[in-house]
Design brief:
This protein is mostly helical. It has 5 helices and 2 strands; from the N terminus they run ααββααα.
Length: 162
């Protein structure tokens, strides 16, 4: 599959999640993805099938709060959620195994997804902690050895919180 825009990736993941998925992924770490063709920076390819597995596992609910309202997708007839990599894909180069795995992908309502990308870190920190706590053992089972403090630094970036 070629390089997809963020919207195309989300649509593909939701469509694939609607179909019958074979969740038979091999155990342990999976090979790192290749670089996305034509990317202007070191971006790695994301597989919408991995996102679809995570979306289906969430039962099309926001993992921050299952009561969050969203809308019904006209294509899938399910609540619309978006896939988000808890350990961001931009850090793939720091890991020996793929970050593009269902265990690292959370389903979020569109508002929560925007929060992950645009809010102040202080508004996101407790959510990151809870999601990481829920997934840390699963990440380790896929050879992704990361601590919450490292994830916090990834999201904090160099934003001043005054």
């Amino acid at each position: 599959m070629g390089s997809l825009s963020p919207d195309e990736y989300q649509e593909a993941a939701n469509e694939i999640a609607k179909s019958t998925l074979n969740g038979g992924l091999p155990e342990g770490g999976l090979p790192r993805p290749k670089f996305a063709p034509g990317a202007t920076k070191a971006a790695f390819k994301r597989d919408p099938k991995m996102a679809a597995l995570a979306i289906a596992a969430s039962s099309y609910s926001c993992e921050v709060d299952t009561e969050h309202e969203t809308f019904t997708s006209r294509r899938t007839k399910e609540r619309f959620v978006e896939a988000h990599h808890l350990v961001p894909m931009q850090y793939q180069g720091e890991f020996s195994f793929s970050l593009d795995i269902p265990e690292n992908i959370v389903a979020l309502c569109p508002t929560c997804h925007r929060k992950f990308h645009h809010s102040r870190f202080s508004e996101l920190k407790s959510i990151l902690g809870r999601l990481f706590s829920d997934r840390s053992a699963l990440l380790k089972s896929r050879e992704i050895d990361v601590e919450l403090s490292a994830i916090n630094e990834m999201y904090k970036g160099d934003v001043e919180e005054g």
